[in-house]
Amino acid sequence: MFISPAFAAGNGSPAGFDLMGFLPMIVIFVLFWLLMVRPQQKRMKETQKMLSEIQKGDEVVTQGGIVGRVVKASEQYLTLEIANNVEINVQRAAVNGKLEKGTMKSL
């Protein structure tokens, strides 16, 4: 009564793969990749490179905000001098950033 006979027959949609139905999901996936995943991977590579380049004499800041000078460096751990004759051991992964030389003296 309210349904037209052509629509009720069920011949309105073609059988098979409909690319236009998947196009919005493909576009969303590409945007997600470009805006979220790719920059995060780039940031991780830069962080890993920075951590691997830390050597004795570099000044670093930890994730906890401790600023210190590297006096001993091993593969997994760093020994930081945070004050005169005060040294602490931290994991390399706990280093948040490398500082310019002389930063500790200006603090």
From TrEMBL:
Domain of life: Bacteria
Transmembrane segments: 20-37
Gene Ontology CC: plasma membrane
InterPro entries named in the record: Preprotein_translocase_YajC (IPR003849)
Keyword field contains Hydrolase: no
SMART domains: YajC
Any one Gene Ontology BP term: protein transport
Topology within the bilayer: Single-pass membrane protein
Family: Belongs to the YajC family.
PANTHER family: SEC TRANSLOCON ACCESSORY COMPLEX SUBUNIT YAJC
Listed name of the protein: Sec translocon accessory complex subunit YajC
Organism this protein belongs to: Chromobacterium sphagni
